[in-house]
């Protein structure tokens, strides 16, 4: 029977989180608590559509996840670690970067269509610039070696994928269609990253799921704020 | 249920399955149904003379005949039990195929290295899916659909490339089927259950395509498949009913 993955407990100690990041994690945790508390009554919840409205929270959460992924993989393609990867692995990371950028754009359109918040133009960070991320933070060694690059990629990808699965019963049908269409590709991404890294690409017959609270805690180490700000906090947006 | 009713149900079901037309009509973003076939050159399994010819371009054929008998009664996906039985049929197919591959490889060692592990993983996973869906259906008081007799091209049991080619198609079909059915699921726990299987089918698809040297991801989002398309893909793999006949025998 399906069982949630036992994702290693994320630690924030030693990462030196800024106050803004801590507030973001807190906001994500708050939103996550709301979501976790209602997940046990999802059927009732859906019948109260219009009274309790979780779609904006979840869509914004997903939007920021895709922003994090597209940012990470775009930066990966210009890293030293990337240059030391085999050709097939480099092609994989390139493809993932493009896919996640499209996911970010697609969810942005959804947000705009649903009237959550006007979607702002996304500026690709897929450049050879060596500047530090303006919004997301990565471990200092994330882009230094192929192993660390792949480990970080897998951590981010798995968390985002399982956050999608954790929210399947908390969104309306239209959002579900899009989210599921994206989550399928995220699953493909994760499998091939694990394969490239020499790890088991499918350790369980059933996909794991994470609450947004748990996903937010894990991704918080990368500067993720859980979409509480309505999306990116990039000053250019 | 008459042949006309089956075709009509499939047609009306398509309207329910697809929320909207694709926004981008380029090939990359077309629904999987409409995209040109993407099989590896020279690796498409040769049709066995004993197998009935497949007619994927003829929806009425896909929803009649043996596939129609299997899928016709399931085309009316009006309840979660209907959807679970639809999924069960696909999982029966996949599990049967991969278990046969493992058996064939045990006898002939035609797979090497990673492919041995991958075939074993796929067999494990699809068997687990069958077991889990069976349990869910029976726990809900439903009657699981009977397992059809399947037949597979003989090349898939002697050629690693043929195995991977068919595996990629089966997994991709599973992904498209689950994606199409997801919005129709009514109960939250059934939706989460189906999603947990869908996620693994997607991992399988990416993995198989990757090790086969194919692009692991065709488009940035998965596409749902119509019942007609699924039935058309599956029809050649459903035996006429004679146990151990034709390709089904090993």
Question: How would the blueprint of this fold be written?
Answer:
The complex is a heterodimer of chains A (237) and B (250).
Chain A: H1 19-39, H2 42-47, H3 55-76, H4 80-83, H5 87-114, H6 146-166, H7 173-196, H8 212-219
Chain B: H1 3-17, H2 59-62, H3 65-71, H4 80-108, H5 114-139, H6 160-181, H7 188-211, H8 227-234
Helix pairs in contact in B: 4-5, 4-6, 5-7, 6-7
What class, by secondary structure content of chain B?
mainly alpha
Low-confidence stretches of chain A: 1-41, 118-134, 229-237
Number of strands of chain B: 0
Radius of gyration of chain B: 17 Å
Coarse shape of chain A: globular
Provide mean pLDDT of chain A, rounded.
77
Assess the beta-strand content of chain B as a share of residues: under 5%
| Tally of helical runs of chain B | 8
Category by helix and strand content of chain A: mainly alpha
Principal-axis shape of chain B equals globular
Number of helices of chain A: 8
Largest interface: A-B, 43 and 42 residues
From the alpha carbons, calculate the radius of gyration of chain A and give it in angstroms: 17 Å
Order of helices and strands of chain A, N to C?
HHHHHHHH
Range of strand content of chain A: under 5%
Largest sheet of chain B: none
Query: How many strands, what sense, and barrel or not for the largest sheet of chain A?
Result: none
Q: What is the helix fraction of residues of chain A, given as a range?
A: 55-70%
Q: What is the total tally of β strands of chain A?
A: 0
How would you characterize the overall build of this protein?
- The complex is a heterodimer of chains A (237) and B (250).
- Chain A has helices spanning 19-39, 42-47, 55-76, 80-83, 87-114, 146-166, 173-196, 212-219.
- Chain A contains 8 helices and no strands.
- Chain A is mainly alpha-helical.
- Helices cover 57% and strands 0% of the residues of chain A.
- The radius of gyration of chain A is 17 Å and the shape is globular.
- In chain A, helix 3 packs antiparallel against helix 6, helix 6 runs antiparallel to helix 7 (173-196) and helix 6 (146-166) runs antiparallel to helix 8.
- Chain B is 54% helix and 0% strand.
- Chain B has helices spanning 3-17, 59-62, 65-71, 80-108, 114-139, 160-181, 188-211, 227-234.
- Chain B contains 8 helices and no strands.
- The A-B interface holds A 1-2, 42-43, 46, 92, 95, 98-99, 102-103, 106, 161, 165, 168-169, 173-174, 176-178, 180-192, 195, 201-202, 204-209 and B 19, 121, 124-125, 128-129, 132, 135, 175, 179, 182-183, 187-189, 191-193, 195-200, 202-207, 209-211, 215-217, 219-224.
């Amino acid at each position: 029977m399906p069982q949630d993955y036992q994702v290693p407990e994320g630690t924030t100690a030693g990462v030196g989180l800024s106050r803004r990041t801590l507030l973001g994690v807190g906001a994500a945790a708050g939103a996550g608590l709301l979501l976790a508390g209602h997940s046990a009554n999802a059927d009732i919840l859906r019948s109260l559509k219009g009274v309790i409205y979780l779609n904006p929270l979840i869509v914004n959460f997903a939007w920021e996840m895709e922003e994090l992924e597209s940012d990470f993989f775009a930066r990966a393609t210009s890293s030293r670690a990337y240059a030391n990867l085999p050709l097939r692995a480099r092609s994989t990371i390139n493809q993932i970067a493009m896919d996640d950028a499209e996911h970010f754009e697609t969810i942005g359109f959804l947000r705009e269509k649903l009237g959550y918040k006007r979607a702002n133009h996304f500026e690709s960070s897929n450049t050879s610039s060596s500047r530090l991320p303006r919004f997301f933070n990565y471990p200092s060694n994330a882009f230094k070696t192929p192993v660390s690059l792949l480990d970080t990629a897998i951590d981010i990808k798995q968390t985002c994928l399982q956050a999608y699965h954790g929210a399947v019963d908390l969104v309306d049908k239209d959002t579900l269609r899009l989210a599921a269409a994206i989550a399928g590709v995220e699953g493909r991404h994760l499998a091939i990253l694990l394969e490239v890294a020499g790890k088991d690409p499918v350790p369980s017959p059933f996909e794991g799921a994470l609450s947004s609270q748990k996903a937010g805690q894990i991704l918080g180490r990368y500067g993720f704020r859980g979409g509480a700000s309505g999306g990116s906090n990039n000053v250019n947006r | 249920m008459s042949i006309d009713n089956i075709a009509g149900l499939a047609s009306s079901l398509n309207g329910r399955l697809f929320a909207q037309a694709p926004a981008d009509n380029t090939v990359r973003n077309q629904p999987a149904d409409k995209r040109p076939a993407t099989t590896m050159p020279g690796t498409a399994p040769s049709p066995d003379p004993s197998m009935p010819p497949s007619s994927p371009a003829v929806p009425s054929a896909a929803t009649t005949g043996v596939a129609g008998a299997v899928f016709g009664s399931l085309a009316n996906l009006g309840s979660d039990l209907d959807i679970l039985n639809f999924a069960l049929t696909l999982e029966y197919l996949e599990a049967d195929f991969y278990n046969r591959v493992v058996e064939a490889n045990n006898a002939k060692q035609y797979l090497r290295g990673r492919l041995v592990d991958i075939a074993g993983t796929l067999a494990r996973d699809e068997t687990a899916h069958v077991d889990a869906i069976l349990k869910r259906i029976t726990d809900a008081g439903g009657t699981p659909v009977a397992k059809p007799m399947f037949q597979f091209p003989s090349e898939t049991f002697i050629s690693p490339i043929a195995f991977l080619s068919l595996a990629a198609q089966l997994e991709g079909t599973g992904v498209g089927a689950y994606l199409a059915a997801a919005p129709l699921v009514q109960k939250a726990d059934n939706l989460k259950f189906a999603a947990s299987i869908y996620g693994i089918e997607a991992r399988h698809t990416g993995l198989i395509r990757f090790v086969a040297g194919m692009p692991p991801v065709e488009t940035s989002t998965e596409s749902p498949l119509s019942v007609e398309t699924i039935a058309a893909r599956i029809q050649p793999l459903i035996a006429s009913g004679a146990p151990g006949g034709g390709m089904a025998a090993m």
